[in-house]
Amino acid sequence: MARFEPHPSRRPAVVTGASSGIGAATATALAMAGHPVALGARRAERCEELAATIRAGGGEAFAHPLDVADGDSVKAFAQAAAENLGAVEVVVSSAGDLHAQRLDELDSDDFAAQVQVHLVGAHRLVSAFAPGMVARRRGDIVFVSSDVVRSPRTRMGAYVAAKSGVEGMARQMQMELEGTGVRASLVRPGPTSTGMGMNWDAETTGKVLEEWVKWGHARHPYFLRPSDVAAAVAAVVGMPRGAHLTLVEVQPEAPLEER
Ligand SMILES: NC(=O)c1ccc[n+]([C@@H]2O[C@H](COP(=O)([O-])OP(=O)(O)OC[C@H]3O[C@@H](n4cnc5c(N)ncnc54)[C@H](OP(=O)(O)O)[C@@H]3O)[C@@H](O)[C@H]2O)c1
Hints:
The protein is α/β, with parallel strands linked by helices. The chain contains 7 helices and 7 strands, in the order E-H-E-H-E-H-E-H-E-H-E-H-H-E. It has helices at 21-32, 44-56, 71-85, 108-136, 157-176, 202-214, 226-238; strands spanning 13-16, 37-41, 61-65, 90-93, 139-144, 182-189, 247-250. A 7-stranded parallel sheet has the order 3-2-1-4-5-6-7, sandwiched between helices. The mean pLDDT is 96. Residues 16-17, 19-23, 41-43, 66-69, 94-97, 117, 144, 146, 189, 191-192, 194-196, 226 line the site of NADP nicotinamide-adenine-dinucleotide phosphate. NADP nicotinamide-adenine-dinucleotide phosphate is lined by residues 16-17, 19-23, 41-43, 66-69, 94-97, 117, 144, 146, 189, 191-192, 194-196, 226.
């Protein structure tokens, strides 16, 4: 006899940060894998455009405004997702932003704002969706973390602290959820070409890249594409029940060289 029921055929998924980058690519990948998807971000019109594209391709998608830094917004998003798609089986936490400043220069309110989005925002999703999953005895919650947790990068102190908190929270959830059928997982991308960092001025970008070289981070020039990270998220969510990809780190392959 199978130890676990297989995944249900219909697995509605919510993706935060779905207006851009990794979140948008993940919503697309999950829709292509057959999940009905709820897309959330502050730029709801961009989510709606992507949802319309998914629907035009034969998928099921729904968009709703979402600010993960606002508890009421998360509750409204969660309610709308369940009303439109049914009980949520998969949550992907990808919303985030990044301000490139040294910790000694960073205002504590700005530090707190980044923790609000990355860490408290992720926990708001847990509060909204995990109890239903535990009651149904199945579900996937995927946190998009960052390789900065393993190897911090300068000028990203609040981000490093927040993502370290996300990984600590996810590891603890893996213990607390053991035996419930609910899998909490981490996908930890390396450098990825997205909207992140695109709003920095040229001087800031130059300094960040100089320091990456100084600290040995810029080993080669290739970045991941958002679809690469989305493929990792889809693999985590697509694992058969009874097995759990607890942490997947994704790095860009280096350019091929002569041997
Ligand atoms: N790019 C990288 O190199 C890299 C590496 C490791 C990890 N990551 C992680 O990957 C995740 C996605 O980032 P990305 O690289 O894809 O960057 P991106 O293209 O800038 O996307 C960030 C997304 O987060 C959303 N967002 C920001 N603040 C939000 C809020 N308060 N409420 C709801 N949504 C919010 C943005 O949408 P709105 O502005 O419309 O709200 C956008 O959709 C982040 O968690 C990031 O830390 C990125």
